């Protein structure tokens, strides 16, 4: 007997095949006394007292089959299930349904009381410009209750009796209650009316107390905050998650609307008035993943999470530094970066300004882009001090003289040297002063690679001494954060050293140039520039800071060339002739 499940797998890039997971029911696992029940747990991790199939089922739904050879003995098609849901054949019935509770080792329980169907609307939620008003009708079985203040609808809320007229941006939250059934889930509908945004729109809807309650709201300062920035102990520094719905309304084509969990995201930027928010798709909210191609130039169409990023410390300046710089690093250097998509965010119907949809760096990010299971990925941060495998790399590198080709070749077999070189050089060239915020990873059969990540503090100070900071032989860097043991071990190899210095010259000559940077600044300005005027009004910062910031970006690369030339020459003790040989232009 073979017990297996299958699903259409689009979780990993460039795959559309049917993925089949098999488990063989051996005789000793299925033979028992008359009336005895045998239980196999479908999980990747062993569960004490049960046989484990070694694979798990998706909350999005799968088909499970029991076969004998090529003969199908039985099967069940699982629907999309929420958290703590049990599905099977009710006791004495031959059809499948939601069950009252799981009963491993005994006969199934009775069919559970079903939820009412959620209400639907006559006018799709979305963006509407150039209209006087919208008339929205709700329909569904039983009675419909709704709210317009984003609170959770209950049987005490407004009873729907006829069309709802909307004259400005509004959120309708509604439920159905059918006789003999439990109330339905909440349906959220956001209507963006006559806002005339110049960017695509993302909306978040959640019960207001989830954000603003003094004690429990994730956006609130709360009772535990310190008195000085970044207000450590504030609610927004805690790892709290709250239920919400997120919707995306693109200029063209279909968007999406899905329940999720939300958390405040970031480091010090959590303390800013305009905060980043991470969206997590979990089974307990309805579906454990988002099936949507978020980024037009990337085929990846399955996400476990994403970030609505406030652009970090650049939020009230250019609002493009990180996305612009990482775009250049990806396009010209082939470095791994987070995809981006500029949008306008509305929270509970209120304009929240310019944001970017960004990929969230995790094992799922690597799995999606490299076509491997997430379980085969290690993602490390900063110096990787908590990552045992990476610490073995560092231990070997510092205890062996890498001028020896044998030792250097070994490091080359486990570290993507070309990727690492380009990454370090790029960090130096852009003058990243927040250089301890590092993400890097390894797949089960791959090499260590680095991600160009969180570079909002770059392109600011043309004379920033990042050559010495990123190459400091003491093993530390700016504010004792940037780890330099590996790069210094590699620089003992003359071939690597020559290639490294030449790469600095190449990037300054071909990548971080006025022509390249100006083209990217122009492209981003064309996308977000007009919307930044309203963002400045919303958050009370000066629009002139945006336009001045664009000039700062353009001027940086002009001034940076002279500083890099001087830093490299002095640090490595080179003559002008040697600098020329490496490709530098004075």
Number of strands: 28
Question: What is the SS-derived class?
Answer: alpha+beta
Helix content range? 25-40%
Describe the largest sheet. Answer: 7 strands, mixed, barrel
Strand content: 15-25%
Number of helical regions = 13
User: What is the chains' assembly state?
Assistant: single chain
Please give a structural write-up.
The protein is an alpha+beta fold and 586 residues long. Helix content is 27%, strand content 24%. The strands form 8 sheets. A 7-stranded mixed β-barrel has the order 18-19-20-21-22-25-24. A 5-stranded mixed sheet has the order 10-17-16-13-14, with no helix packed on it. A 4-stranded antiparallel sheet has the order 2-1-5-6, with no helix packed on it. A hairpin with a 6-residue loop joins strand 19 (242-249) and strand 20 (256-265). Helix 3 packs antiparallel against helix 11 (514-539), helix 7 packs across helix 10 (494-510) and helix 11 packs antiparallel against helix 12. The model is unreliable at 8-17 and 476-480 (pLDDT under 50).
């Amino acid at each position: 007997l073979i017990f297996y499940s299958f699903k259409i797998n689009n979780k990993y890039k460039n795959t559309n095949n049917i993925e089949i997971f098999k488990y063989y029911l051996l005789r000793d696992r299925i033979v028992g006394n008359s009336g005895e029940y045998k239980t196999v747990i479908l999980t990747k991790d062993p569960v004490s007292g049960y046989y484990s199939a070694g694979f798990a089922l998706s909350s999005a739904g799968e088909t499970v089959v029991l076969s004998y050879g090529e003969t199908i003995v039985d099967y069940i098609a699982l629907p999309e299930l929420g958290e703590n849901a049990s599905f099977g054949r009710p006791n004495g019935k031959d059809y499948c349904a939601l069950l009252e509770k799981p009963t491993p080792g005994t006969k199934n329980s009775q069919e559970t009381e079903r939820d009412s169907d959620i209400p639907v609307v006559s006018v799709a939620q979305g963006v509407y410009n150039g209209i006087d008003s919208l008339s929205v009708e709700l329909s569904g079985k039983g009675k419909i209750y709704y709210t317009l203040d984003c609170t959770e609808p209950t049987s005490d809320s407004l009873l729907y009796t006829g069309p709802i007229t909307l004259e400005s941006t509004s959120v309708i939250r509604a439920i159905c209650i059918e006789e003999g059934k439990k109330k339905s889930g909440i349906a959220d509908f956001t209507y963006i009316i006559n806002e005339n945004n110049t960017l695509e729109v993302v909306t978040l809807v959640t019960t207001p107390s989830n954000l603003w309650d003094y004690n429990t709201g994730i956006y609130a300062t709360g009772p535990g905050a310190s008195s000085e920035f970044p207000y450590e102990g504030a609610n927004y520094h805690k790892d709290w998650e709250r239920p919400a719905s997120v919707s995306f309304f693109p200029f063209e084509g279909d968007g999406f609307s899905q329940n999720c969990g939300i958390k405040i995201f970031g480091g010090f930027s959590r303390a800013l008035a305009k905060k980043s928010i991470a969206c997590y798709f979990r089974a307990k909210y309805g579906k454990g993943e988002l099936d949507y191609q978020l980024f037009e130039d990337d085929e990846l169409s399955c996400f476990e999470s994403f970030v609505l990023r406030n652009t970090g410390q650049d939020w009230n300046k250019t609002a493009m530094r990180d996305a612009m710089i990482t775009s250049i690093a990806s396009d010209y250097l082939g470095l791994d970066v987070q995809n981006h998509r500029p949008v306008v965010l509305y929270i509970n119907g209120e304009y929240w300004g310019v944001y970017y949809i960004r990929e969230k760096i995790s094992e799922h990010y690597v799995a999606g882009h490299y076509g491997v299971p997430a379980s085969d990925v290690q993602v490390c941060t900063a110096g990787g001090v908590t990552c045992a495998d990476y610490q073995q790399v560092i231990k070997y590198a510092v205890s062996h003289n890498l001028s020896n080709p044998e030792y250097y070749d070994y490091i080359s077999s486990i570290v993507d040297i070309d990727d690492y070189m380009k990454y370090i050089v790029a960090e130096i060239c852009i003058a990243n002063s927040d250089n301890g915020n590092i993400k890097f990873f390894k797949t089960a059969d791959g090499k260590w690679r680095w991600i160009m990540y969180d570079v909002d503090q770059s392109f600011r100070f043309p004379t920033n001494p990042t050559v010495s900071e990123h190459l400091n032989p003491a093993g530390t860097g700016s504010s004792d954060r940037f780890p330099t043991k590996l790069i210094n071990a590699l620089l003992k190899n003359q071939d690597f050293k020559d290639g490294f210095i030449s790469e600095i010259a190449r990037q300054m000559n071909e990548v971080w140039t006025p022509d390249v940077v100006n083209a990217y600044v122009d492209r981003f300005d064309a996308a977000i520039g007009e919307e930044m005027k309203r963002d400045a009004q919303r958050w009370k910062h000066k629009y002139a800071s945006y336009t001045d910031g664009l000039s700062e970006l353009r001027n940086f690369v002009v001034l940076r060339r002279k500083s890099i030339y001087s830093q490299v020459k002095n640090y490595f003790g080179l003559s002008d002739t040697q600098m020329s040989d490496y490709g530098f232009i004075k």
